[in-house]
């Protein structure tokens, strides 16, 4: 499916525009079905966007938020994506939203993935909105190059849900929604910032293995158009 690049003069401009687009899409889903769902990424990039989105005036009590991926760490760990969402998105008007964490207090990451799959099933078939990020190594969600479960995670025939991933570049074991869960969101966004990430994107758009740069799975095979939001 085609992708469209939306470029902005600054990270603040991007955050405001993306927050407006996401708020409009959530409101349209609520008007149509009474509820709306969004899966967001962690990392360093989305913080300003989260803060902007948290101030938008929508029916947040009808919105369920979850994560595209998470480290297998509890929410008080400084590296937790849940902590980032708590501090920056579940604030202001968005405090009224429901948050479904991927991390579960389970004996293993595999058991946590099973529990999280059950708990998110009702909101992910498909998501109204998915916001992806991308690492400098071409990973997206926790689809890491060399990842223990990468082939399964990006195989379109792997069912919707959450699986585990371990990789050298990942730090802790990870929990990640599979490609099939993310690729058909009504609004599928790739949010990246900086010249370095633009170069990584250009490389990913060229030829080469998906296993080398897993973002290629999304750019090449997502059934929804990929809306790329970029600022310097
Ligand atoms: O590990 C992760 O990194 C990516 C990109 O993060 P950034 O710090 O380069 O913005 C993120 O999309 C993913 O959710 C996160 O777990």
TrEMBL record:
UniProt-listed Pfam families: Glucosamine_iso
Glucosamine/galactosamine-6-phosphate isomerase domain location is: 10-221
Query: What keywords is this UniProt entry annotated with?
Result: Hydrolase
The source's domain of life comes to Bacteria
Enumerate the catalysed reactions: 6-phospho-D-glucono-1,5-lactone + H2O = 6-phospho-D-gluconate + H(+)
Q: Name one GO molecular function term.
A: 6-phosphogluconolactonase activity
- Does Plastid count among this protein's keywords? no
Q: Which pathway does the record list?
A: Carbohydrate degradation; pentose phosphate pathway; D-ribulose 5-phosphate from D-glucose 6-phosphate (oxidative stage): step 2/3
Identify the InterPro entries for this entry.
Answer: 6-phosphogluconolactonase_DevB, 6PGL, Glc/Gal-6P_isomerase, NagB/RpiA_transferase-like
Q: What is its EC number?
A: 3.1.1.31
The biological process GO terms on file are:
carbohydrate metabolic process; pentose-phosphate shunt
Spell out the family assignment given in the record's similarity comment. Belongs to the glucosamine/galactosamine-6-phosphate isomerase family. 6-phosphogluconolactonase subfamily.
Function, please? Hydrolysis of 6-phosphogluconolactone to 6-phosphogluconate.
Listed name of the protein: 6-phosphogluconolactonase
